[in-house]
Amino acid sequence: xxxxxxxxxxxxxxxxxxxxxxxxxxxxxxxxxxxxxxxxxxxxxxxxxxxxxxxxxxxxxxxxxxxxxxxxxxxxxxxxxxxxxxxxxxxxxxxxxxxxxxxxxxxxxxxxxxxxxxxxxxxxxxxxxxxxxxxxxxxxxxxxxxxxxxxxxxxxxxxxxxxxxxxxxxxxxxxxxxxxxxxx
Length: 184
Known about the structure:
This is AAA family ATPase. It comes from Saccharopolyspora gregorii. The chain is an alpha/beta fold. The chain has a domain at 5-95 and 142-177: Rossmann fold, CATH 3.40.50.300. Helix content is 43%, strand content 13%. It contains 8 helices and 5 strands; from the N terminus they run βαβααβαβαααβα. The protein has helices at 16-27, 35-38, 52-62, 80-83, 96-111, 122-133, 143-152, 167-177; strands spanning 5-10, 31-33, 69-72, 88-93, 158-162. A 5-stranded parallel beta sheet has the order 2-3-1-4-5. Helix 1 crosses helix 8 and helix 5 (96-111) runs antiparallel to helix 6. The longest helix is centred in the middle third of the chain and has 16 residues, at 96-111. The two termini are 16 Å apart.
């Protein structure tokens, strides 16, 4: 495979990590998730952000110098230095109710009864779902409009796909868009 560096991004729960992993497997290249660099390792996870000044240097030391890779997540607001290393961006969308149901299921798998009412992570889970549900808020300029502005300024090709479609179809569309043959 020719060297490709692709970012798969979109709202939380849209399937960017799942598609990112599938593309990395298809190309036999490394995959990383932005969360690996954004968050410090904590228990429970995702409670303490890594300082912004440490994120890109960490990515540059561990990941970015490779000739090909797939990164999933968002760099908007802190990772612009990595944009120059991208060949292309895939932006996934999905309806809010679809994303929230995926997130609910994912958290039950990850944390079990801790996210249920009365569980040790119930409040954090509720707050996370509320935050995730506000992504498409059109009453005030929110994260979706900020993502659209950010994407428009990337000066990189952007493929927009519905994350509600089957994973095999999404992978095939990205591979075809980038001129590769789907290995199915």
